[in-house]
Design brief:
Oligomer: single chain
Largest sheet: 4 strands, mixed
Helix content: 25-40%
Strand order of the largest sheet: 1-2-4-3
CATH architecture: 2-Layer Sandwich
Strand content: 25-35%
Number of domains: 1
Amino acid sequence: MRGIKRLQIGKKGLTPEFVKQLQNIFENEQSLKVAILKSACRDKIEAKKMAEELLEMLGKNYTFRLVGYILTIRKWRKPMRD
């Protein structure tokens, strides 16, 4: 059994290259964990805004759950958000 892929968002934040990397991973995976490092944001409110912005970039077939500074993103077959 394979584990869930893990990535990190660092001081550069959400770059187009990072989003492209996520899209490539989601071609073969259904879920992914992303650690938001302290150098990327100051507090949990900013981390949530970053997560929402990332989902807007990915599309409507994705949902997220933020626990602390660990973001779990899941891809669904059909759109889950408006």
